[in-house]
Design goal:
Layout (H helix, E strand, L loop, with lengths): L15 H19 L6 H18 L4 H34 L2 H10 L7 H16 L2 H19 L3 H18 L4 H10 L3 H28 L10 H13 L8 H11 L4 H18 L5 H10 L14 H7 L8 H19 L2 H9 L6 H19 L2 H18 L4 H13 L9 H10 L3 H4 L4 H16 L13 H8 L12
Helix pairs in contact: 1-2, 1-16, 1-17, 2-15, 3-8, 3-12, 3-13, 3-15, 4-5, 4-10, 5-6, 5-7, 5-9, 6-7, 6-14, 6-20, 7-9, 8-18, 8-19, 9-19, 9-22, 11-12, 12-13, 15-18, 17-18, 17-19, 17-22, 18-19, 19-22
């Protein structure tokens, strides 16, 4: 053999201890680094990826093989990542075009002192659905509602729970939400399929919220009419800053119709954004440069006419959107898939999953295991985004092997990751909600009904088979199912051992 010829490296199969080592390292790094020292998760994920890559190298894999596998993982997620960026584009244009401000304005009109608790849930749900942000909805409309509730003498933990439930309603199912886009990326599902499948666990929770919040509100002692100056101030400010008419709602109609007709996501969103830019120029009278800047960097109050003064609360509500606002989510996704690619090249993930699933004998046990794993990652890392990405990647192939559509997995990580995060006191979301609303996490937890009913219904569906989508011959995953269960499989059924 010539000296110039590369020496062929012998590849070794990892033992369970070796295979689980990078996963344990990742959990420890994120649990300590992010949870206690507040180090950015991107750095910790890259460190975890480096550990996984080092282990793969000592198992006989070259750097080129490791790099190719990482690139392959990222390449498969690029269409969904593009959707994330377009969502930022959409929010920025909807904001400067007046679409989101108009929806917030009419949402605020629904507030009634007599039904403050259920109204807190409905209005916050409405705003979060339009904006796709739980934190923004809580920090603006939520804070205003808490001020009204305090002036009425309403029970603040209950109102705070209703606000958190409403805020995460939109975070869960809005196509503008980062988590709603991340979950199908991780699981290999399609965005609008994922949203429709979420309705199985979301609608029952919403109905329970409406019944409980209404019943509790009607049975509370009479409360004096509160001072709603904050709400009225926001209403008047929005009405004075933006012109409102039917055309402003057309961008929303385009997205809804496109979703109903199952049209490609990116072209629909770009069409909607284009009309929103036209609204910004011809109806709201912003210049084209400001509209373009809102699409890229987000809408800011500096774009408003000089001399216009608005409150800090309204500034927080309006300043959002833009493609750049999604880059942090995209960066976390890239780092997480860098770790997944480095872990997967040595088949470490397969070894760990095989060990985890040896005792699994049913669909119910599989989904329950995925739920528990997602909740564990959420609690350890304090990061709902990582709790979607990592379990999604780990269970992605197993769900297909068991004949389950990927949207079952995307729904699972959304229910057990995104929704659970704000009711865990030490997570970033739990700390933010408690500090913003002025109510301890454990105090509002029982009343944040929507945050935990999704997991309860997910477990019920898992063991009854209700609302669980199976792979069929018409499914685009049928070929992959056959590949995993044997080419001779002719009908979708339980997985072949």
């Amino acid at each position: 053999m010539s000296k110039k010829e590369k020496k062929v490296r012998v590849k070794k199969e990892p033992t369970f201890i070796v295979a689980v080592l990078p996963i344990v390292a990742m959990i420890l790094l994120l649990g300590l680094g992010y949870g206690f020292f507040h180090i950015g998760p991107e750095v910790l994920m890259l460190t975890s990826a480096a550990i996984a890559a080092l282990i793969a190298y000592f198992l006989g894999y070259s750097w080129d093989e490791i790099q190719d596998n990482i690139v392959d993982k990222i390449a498969k997620t690029m269409p969904a990542i593009l959707i994330l960026i377009v969502v930022g584009f959409l929010i920025g244009t909807w904001m400067i075009g007046g679409t989101i401000p108009m929806m917030i304005y009419f949402g605020l009109k629904l507030i009634s002192p007599k039904f403050i608790i259920v109204t807190a849930f409905v209005v916050t749900s409405f705003v979060s659905l339009c904006t796709g942000t739980s934190w923004g909805s809580t920090g603006t409309i939520g804070v205003a509602i808490m001020g009204v509730a305090a002036s009425m003498g309403a029970p603040l933990p209950i109102v705070a729970g209703a606000v958190v439930s409403g805020a995460y309603f939109g975070d869960k199912i809005s196509p503008l939400s980062g988590s709603t886009n991340l979950a199908p990326i991780a699981a290999g599902a399609e965005l609008y399929e994922h949203i429709r499948h979420l309705l199985w666990t979301t609608i029952p929770g919403v109905l329970i919220c409406l019944v409980v919040y209404t019943t509790v509100g009607l049975n509370l002692p009479d409360m004096a009419g509160g001072n709603s100056d904050k709400i009225q101030m926001v209403e008047k400010s929005i009405h004075s800053l933006f012109n409102m008419n039917f055309w402003i709602l057309i961008p929303i109609v385009i997205v809804l119709v496109g979703s109903a007709l199952q049209k490609p996501t990116i072209p629909v969103m770009l069409l909607s954004s284009t009309l929103a830019i036209l609204n910004a120029v011809f109806i709201q009278h912003f210049d084209i440069k400001s509209a373009a800047e809102a699409a890229v960097t987000g809408f800011t109050t500096d774009m408003l006419p000089q001399g216009v003064k608005i409150s800090a609360d309204l500034t927080t509500l309006l300043e959002r959107g833009g493609m750049i606002s999604m880059l942090s989510v995209v960066l976390i996704a890239l780092c997480a898939y860098g770790f997944a690619g480095a872990l997967d090249v040595s088949h470490s993930l397969t070894v760990v999953l095989n060990a985890m699933t040896k005792a699994i004998r049913s669909t119910g046990q599989l989904i329950a295991t995925a739920i528990f794993s997602t909740m564990l990652v959420t609690g350890v890392t304090s990061n709902g985004q990582l709790a979607e990405l990592l379990p999604g990647e780990m269970f992605r192939d197993i769900f297909v092997k068991y004949g389950l559509e990927p949207k079952n997995l995307s729904r699972t990580v959304e229910d057990a990751g995104t929704m659970i995060e704000p009711i865990i006191p030490w997570t970033a979301a739990g700390v933010y909600m408690a500090s913003t609303l002025g109510v301890d996490t454990m105090a509002y937890l029982p009343w944040a009904i929507l945050c935990y009913t999704g997991t309860i219904f997910a477990l019920i569906y898992a063991f009854t088979g209700i609302g669980v989508a199976k792979i069929t011959k018409k499914s685009r995953f049928w070929a992959e199912y056959q590949e995993r269960n044997g080419k001779t499989v002719e009908t979708p059924s339980d997985p072949v051992a």
